[in-house]
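Incident log entry.

Two folding requests arrived from the same account within the same minute. Monitoring flagged them as a possible duplicate submission, but the sequences differ. Recording both here for audit purposes.

Request one:
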Amino acid sequence: MVNPKLRAIWNHPAGPKTIHFWAPTFKWGLSIANISDFSKPPETLSYPQQAVIATSGIIWSRYCFVIKPWNWNLFGVNSAMAATGFYQLFRKATHDYHNPTAPAAAADR
């Protein structure tokens, strides 16, 4: 009655019946939040926070292929976290080190 491909996804060890599916699915919220921060001014970004997001994404992306079965949803969300974290770090560093008005603004405080 059910398509065999859908049944295979449903019964997969990292399928929707397990926490191995739902944890990374909800973790996408963190990546989406970081993407929504692309519109924030770079001076409001935090180096430590973005470094942790990027590093965590790299570490857990590697872990996705150590565990069995491979969890592609977890790999995808962690890769997105790493990419968005590095992009935000790039934005912040570019603003801080290549912006000629930044030292003048800091001197006004």
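Request two (distinct sequence, not a duplicate):
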Amino acid sequence: MPDYILYILLAITGLIAGFVNTLAGGGSFLTIPALIYFFNLPPQIANATNRFSVIFYAGTSSSIFLKHGLTDYRLMLRLLIPSIVGAVCGAGAAAILPPKSFQLIFGIAMILMALTFILKPKILLETRHRTKPTPIKELFVFYLIGFYGGFMQAGVGLLLLAGIAIFHAKDLVKSNAIKVTLAFFFGFVSVAIFAYYGQIDYVKGAVIAIGAIIGALIGAKLAIKKGARLIFFFVITIAIITGINLIYTTFTTS
């Protein structure tokens, strides 16, 4: 197949991923395999290259949510610190370790999370404060989420939404605004570490980014227009798909 066709397909994949990531998460399960199968990139290079594109979709989404006054910056800044620390540790680990050791654990966790949301949808949809979060627990949870985001990225949006829902009862659209803004900032940390190790293919990352920006524009505007119910549907669907994918690849890849 001609290279230009592969690049077009890569951009289309980026568009779908940007849309899915803005509404829920898990778009990297499309873009990373595309980089591997279309261009034969090693998994670590595909992971790092995909991360380069993430900051573009996340920046686009966060700017739209900010424009509509939906981002709680005080909360976002509080969650950003442990997330960044975790992302530094996770990206450093990803630069030297294979992700397979984490896949099974997170795959099962994603499915359990989806089932929990199905049985108790108020966890995501309730907008009243339930209990005041314990600072230590909140720091620890968002450090772990940041670590996963730095290490693997795929599905981190789902974990961010879950973490925000557990500690802070917010409208799901507003939670999504915090999620993409966090992803934007700690994405820079991951990219810097992968760039240091020379693991980013900038041309292919830019092609994904072009598609992802378009997808993020569509996704953010749709999220604002359709509201929490649409995001809830995507979160449940993508969490199940992500969990199955992680478990499947654990046992089918060498």
